[in-house]
């Protein structure tokens, strides 16, 4: 049975903008405040990673300090290690997202360590986050394929996801980083992971590189997962995964879910306006089909 509502976790200001041209801090702040006003109540606003690795996120502390932090919205930031956590705390962020992968090669290229080393790095982060009463989410990348290793064993995805939940993550987001998945593969990966972790603790994070993201989501909609990540205007992608286009566009996800009678709480016309605005600022055309349709 399909759920009656889905919680959308908006990643445009982080996963989107990390792979676009540099934007002024004020434009990011305007975007985040606008997304919150559209009814998006979980927004990843930036990342505390090395500025040398991802210069687009270098102003994340300023972004966190300047956004209007509404009580009804959960703002989170991506963090790779204890140094990132300290910066998130200083910026008054109450939720962090840790990230690792199901592929060794991708993990090395993305965060310069093995999967096991990444989990070791996370141990002190979980301890400090718990002491500071922060919520900790986590991502596993390359769950349906890796740009360096090709096919990834679903047992490996399940093992890494299970380890993160055991360490204290309240939710693990399953990333099809390069968007190579197709519906049957997506569903069997979710079923394999659900044998070790409750689907209520999972989220879907599907990139739309091959135009499969919505189909993959429909294939997993009755699996018990009720959180889906999406990026306004389909912005961005991961800089360490060649060919990764943006996540599924939030506008397209909202249109499909609402059309199926599944509540999202998001004001679609307003969201499409903010999608158009950010694309104008970046000098690009929106990747959202719905955004394009509502524009004409
Ligand atoms: C993880 C590191 C830092 C390791 O990088 P490293 O070089 O192995 O780390 P290090 O500890 O040796 O430190 C090297 C330098 O980075 C600094 N440093 C160390 N930590 C931090 C920090 N937290 N914030 C700011 N600076 C930091 C540190 O101070 C030092 O500075 P230096 O002495 O050279 O001047 C590096 O590899 C990195 O920043 N990688 C960025 C990876 C990234 O952001 N990728 C994109 C996001 S992941 C993604 O998009 C996928 C996802 C989540 O969306 C899901 C999906 O789609 O699959």
From TrEMBL:
Pathway: Metabolic intermediate metabolism; (S)-3-hydroxy-3-methylglutaryl-CoA degradation; acetoacetate from (S)-3-hydroxy-3-methylglutaryl-CoA: step 1/1. Keywords: Lyase, Metal-binding. CDD domains: DRE_TIM_HMGL. SUPFAM superfamilies: Aldolase. Gene3D superfamilies: Aldolase class I (3.20.20.70). Its EC number is 4.1.3.4. It holds the Pfam family HMGL-like. One of its GO terms (molecular function) is lyase activity. Residues 6-272 form the Pyruvate carboxyltransferase domain. It comes from the Bacteria. It catalyses: (3S)-3-hydroxy-3-methylglutaryl-CoA = acetoacetate + acetyl-CoA. PANTHER family: HYDROXYMETHYLGLUTARYL-COA LYASE. NCBIfam families: PRK05692.1 (NF004283). Belongs to the HMG-CoA lyase family. This is hydroxymethylglutaryl-CoA lyase. It comes from Shewanella avicenniae. The lineage of its organism: Bacteria, Pseudomonadati, Pseudomonadota, Gammaproteobacteria, Alteromonadales.
